[in-house]
Amino acid sequence: MLEPAHLQALAAIHRRGSLEAAAAVLGVTPSAVSQRLKALEDRVGCRLIRRGSPCSATPAGMRLIRHHDEIAALEAAVAEDLRIDRAGPVTLRLAVNADSLATWVVPALAAVPDVLFDLVIDDQAYSQEWLKRGEVAAAVTSHPGPLQGCDTLPLGTLRYHATASPAFVARWLAEGISPQTLARAPALTFSDKDALQADWVRQVCGAPLVLPTHRIASSHGFVDAALAGLGWGMNPAPLVAGHLAAGRLVDLVPGRVLEVPLFWQFARLAAPVLAPVTRAMRAAAASALA
Fold first, then answer.
1. For the chain, which end, N or C, has fewer CB atoms within 10 Å of the first or last residue's CB respectively?
2. pLDDT at residue 86, rounded to an integer
3. Which residues pair with 90 in a beta bridge?
């Protein structure tokens, strides 16, 4: 048998990035965390953590972290079925994209009592990777699956508008939308993983373009930047509907939206403890997504 406290220490080191941060989360000393890690490595006979900034789990360490999470999910499900009082709320680690978090995910999470959430924020095209690696119990993703050991439920479509302020359009796009004008007009990009602007340009112009761009890793910052005339960008409909109606933002090409289908993928072993979250996510998505 593997000692649960040792597995808990391993997971905390990997997820918090250092022995000191893991110790703070677990309420013990860094020395105690180090001793637990060493005892576990001695028990399994291999290195489980790569020391660095941040620390990260080896493949063997990741397998044990998945084992730790599976045990925690099963124990939480048993406690729920038998109505056994738990020592504290269960913690669920989920991967979600920033735009979903900014528009409809928070109300879903707030509808689930007695659960603590540890959210990993990543692009919807990449969030499934966290689930594949076993680092999260569930993910909001643009991949429909199938994924081994997981179930997939459709959530709906998040619609994006290519938006800018009227002043920005007058300055940069007065001649209309074309490869020539878009190659000059500053765009907004969330991160290197954000392909929405490029996808929209390809859809409208029929070919890819190299866009001059500001990088702003914030969904609300994207909207603020568009309102201020800093650049144009793809903004989710729920965040900009009021601004479009009031004329503070305009569609660069009216009626030409980009639709991103979203799915809720979750590990089957965690399905029982995730059931209330799954219901809440589907209900919130049904009211917010197309």
1. N
2. 65
3. 115
